Amino acid sequence: MHAPTSSRKFKKAFMEQLLVSLQVAGLTSKTMGLQERRDAVRLSSDVAMAVARGRAAPWARALVARHASERRNEALLRRILGGAGYESAAAAGRSRKIVRRSHGACRRKRIKSSVMAASSGSNGGAMVARRMVKKRLQVLRKLVPGGEALHGSFSLLSQVLDYVACLKTQVELMQRLCKGSPAAA
Amino acid sequence: MQPTTRELQAMAAAAAGAGQISMGDLRNNGHAGPGGANGGGGGVHDDFLDQMFGSLPPSAWHELATAAAAAKPPEDDSGMQQQQQFGGPYDESVMLASRLRQNQISGGGGPGSGAGGAAKQMVLQQLADLRQAGHGHGHHMMLQGGTGRGDSGMILPLTLGNGGSGGDVQALLKAAANSAGGEAGVFGGFAGSLQQQQQHFQPHPQQTAPMPNQTFGGGAASGGGAQPQAGAGGGGGGGTQAPPRQRVRARRGQATDPHSIAERLRRERIAERMKALQELVPNANKTDKASMLDEIIDYVKFLQLQVKVLSMSRLGGAAAVAPLVADMSSEGRGGAGNGGGPAAESDSLTVTEQQVAKLMEEDMGAAMQYLQGKGLCLMPVSLASAISSATCQLRPPSGHAFPHHLNAMRQMHDAAVPASPSMSVLTAQSAMVPGNNGGACAADGGAEASHPKDAASVSKP
Questions:
Q1: Domains in chain A: boundaries
Q2: Do B315 and A41 touch (CB under 8 A)?
Q3: B404-451, pLDDT tens digit by residue?
Q4: How crowded is residue A109: how many other Cβ atoms within 10 Å of its Cβ?
Q5: Residue of B nearest to A183 (CA)
Q6: Which one of A130, B284, B287, B424 has the minimum C-beta count within 10 Å?
Q7: Which of A2, A22, A175 sits opposite B310 (nearest CB)?
Q8: Residues 6 or more apart from B252 whose CB is under 8 A from it?
């Protein structure tokens, strides 16, 4: 099991960062629209999760980079991460975009060729199964942040494992916050 | 580890004395172990192995073991002739040991014999190629096979002992030494088996006897030292027949060896990951990899949607939350949050109650909407007390918060207003129970029912 993601220390760090981020996001202002508020909350929650997880996890970096690449998040992210953190996240996001595009193209070409080669074979059943698995892995790659840049199904599965554990914690913590704080509508 | 030492001692004794008796002992010990398991699964492969190992003359073990036993020249000749042949099953058995272990590790030990049967075939074939592939490569593989858990290493000698013959004993020896002395043991033995092909048999037997003892003693250093040398050759080279046709047969299972070994390792790691994911994802009792991935995908999507919905809710209670921040960071535990939380909440709750009371006088609908905006609902007092008593049992530390809330609620309304149908109090409760960080929340959740938008169904731990 991935101990770091479900430990108390992680939860505490996550929660702390979440609260700080929420505060920084300035959600108390009533002038915020619903959408804006939701995005701000989502952003601060994701960033909190990524920060609590640390730089070690590729998906955490990718998640922050994904948020950093959107212009409108810049102000809020700058406040949460600090100037230096934001810069590195933005840089990571830019390089990731380029990498992702090239990876996507490579993968599409490779998949097409492999599919054509594989469909003709005596062992059709296994080929079909493997193709199904590959398709699902592709979907997973898109779901998990930073999945596109991962080589090999093994590392992808490790990241998925980590990410799922962290997502569960995120949901749990956010629920607790929801229940725990009666706020102005 | 006890049986291991016993077996090792038995083998050491055998090394010194009559090989036949020790073989019998070992076979008995082996049978005492998971003999049934081995016999059950992989029957064909067992037959194959038996055939192979049965071909080894019983005297092979004796020849191997005794240092200066037989006359050198005839031994040498026969050794040379039989080196090639003996190397086959011996190597294979050692490799088989490691692969079997690995398979058992990945297969969870349960279907170990069945997986072991397949592994055996693979391993045999791998070993056959290994001999030609060269030392370094083989050693690498042995390292991969050798590193690891002594527990499963233990099982190997026993299962192999079922095959029962000289080569098996060698494998047992090496595998047991491996589990006792770490990878060095296997290296020592394996090095011997590999080296035997190229080295003369003569100098080796002298080192044969001391070498196993060293590995038995857990002499990692000595075992490692023996590895690059030809010394351990005697450990392997008993000169028994392994007809080439069996090598070909073993090869039928795989295409190319190094790739298949690497691939098998990779597949095992993936299986390990899938198992870990299975524990994490609910409803994951699927055996099929594709459907398992389907479940994982659905679960990730579900969790992401949950986060989205939760962020839409009134998480913007940063104002109320701010006091919590100071408390948590200063005192550093969720328990502190408990103390800070209810205090802050009680104030805001009173305010809320007054608000609602005022609204209720004017317009019931508006009051309900106001409440719902806060994620609260009105509920019959009897139900509230029932819930709070249930929650009190679950969360005694935060029990003190309840009476306050209950009183507040009673003051708010004495009419029994039916609660919103979407109320799922258990959900709120279960969300609170795990961890003590939600102490404040538990008080709130228990008394005030659930958030109408709550899409989560968290299972109780």
A1: 8-112+169-180
A2: yes
A3: 444 444 554 444 444 444 444 444 444 444 444 444 433 444 444 444
A4: 10
A5: B317
A6: B287
A7: A175
A8: B125
